[in-house]
Amino acid sequence: MGVEIKTFTGPAILPHIEAVGKLRIEVFRAFPYLYEGDMAYERSYLHTFASAKNNVLVLALDGEAVVGASTALPLAEESENIKAPFQDYHVPMEEIFYFGESVLLPHYRGRGIGVQFFEEREAFAERRTNMQLMCFCGVVRPEDHPLRPSHYQPLNQFWENRGFRQTDLYCKIAWQDVDKEEETDKQLRFWTKKIKR
Ligand SMILES: CC(C)(COP(=O)(O)OP(=O)(O)OC[C@H]1O[C@@H](n2cnc3c(N)ncnc32)[C@H](O)[C@@H]1OP(=O)(O)O)[C@@H](O)C(=O)NCCC(=O)NCCS
Q1: Atom 18 (ligand 1): residue with closest C-alpha?
Q2: Angstrom distance (rounded) from CA 5 to CA 68
Q3: Are 31 and 147 spatial neighbours (Cβ–Cβ below 8 Å)?
Q4: CB 155 within 8 A of CB 139
Q5: Is the pTM higher than 0.85?
Q6: What's residue 62's pLDDT?
Q7: Which atom of ligand 1 is nearest to the CA of 116?
């Protein structure tokens, strides 16, 4: 059986919080995120996401198993640290749609599911909101980071192929790295793309 892509919004997201939290912890453990996950934090973060207006969750399902997930919501519904770089931006905050994570188990990569995650969220932004711009941010790690695998391929080309462009806007998000004892701030760089109307 193939992998099924399903899109959820509003309260329909709630039943999937546990599965998405577990998946985020598993996938984000790898470079470049190196996230030492914590299910209590995941539940709280994902409940906040599930309560936001105009939110969207795209799931990749192999039978009953959630093997991939992708999220988006209005930037105005996000936390202050993520909104901060857009305070004096030329596009009003209320007209920006924010893409959260895309996480897919390694076994399912390279067969177009990540592209579908973008297409589903972009279709939602175009049809279900009146926003002008989409954005997301990716973590910036030094080239010589000790935990960078030798075969590591950055996602920059993949994101450019989806029509997103790098900006000079950055935000900070704190989490505990797998090789650290406590949370540290990470720098994340924003990418943007205009919404076609
Ligand atoms: C980001 C991520 C979800 C991408 O998933 P993916 O399913 O492997 O990506 P895809 O297979 O859709 O796309 C990869 C390439 O393969 C191509 N591709 C391969 N098979 C394909 C198919 N059957 N149909 C369409 N495209 C296909 C895509 O077109 C794309 O190439 P392109 O950029 O030249 O167009 C995945 O790499 C991941 O989970 N990474 C770890 C977490 C992470 O870093 N997330 C991002 C920040 S939150």
Answers
A1: 112
A2: 9
A3: yes
A4: no
A5: yes
A6: 98
A7: 12
% pLDDT > 70, the chain? 100
- Tell me which DSSP letter residue 125 carries: H
d(CA 173, CA 99): 15
Interatomic CA distance for residues 6 and 57, integer angstroms: 8
pLDDT digits (tens, 9 = 90+) for 104-140: 999 999 999 999 999 999 999 999 999 999 999 999 9
- Domains and their CATH numbers in the chain: 4-145+156-194 (3.40.630.30)
Which residues line ligand 1 at a C-beta cut-off of 6 Å? Answer: 27, 101-104, 109-115, 138, 155, 158, 161
Best substitution site from 20, 115, 118 to test ligand 1's pocket, by max atoms within 8 Å of Cβ?
115
Which residue from 196, 197, 193 is spatially nearest to 96, judged by alpha carbons?
Answer: 193
Task: Tell me the C-alpha distance between 59 and 44, whole Å.
Answer: 19
Question: In Å, how far are 35, 65, 83, 124, 182 from 175, measured between CA atoms?
Answer: 7, 27, 18, 29, 8
Q: What angle do CA 64, 39, 181 make, to 5 degrees?
A: 140
What is the structure's pLDDT at 1?
Answer: 72
Q: Over the chain, what is the mean pLDDT?
A: 97
Residue 137 and residue 98: Cα distance in Å, rounded?
Answer: 9
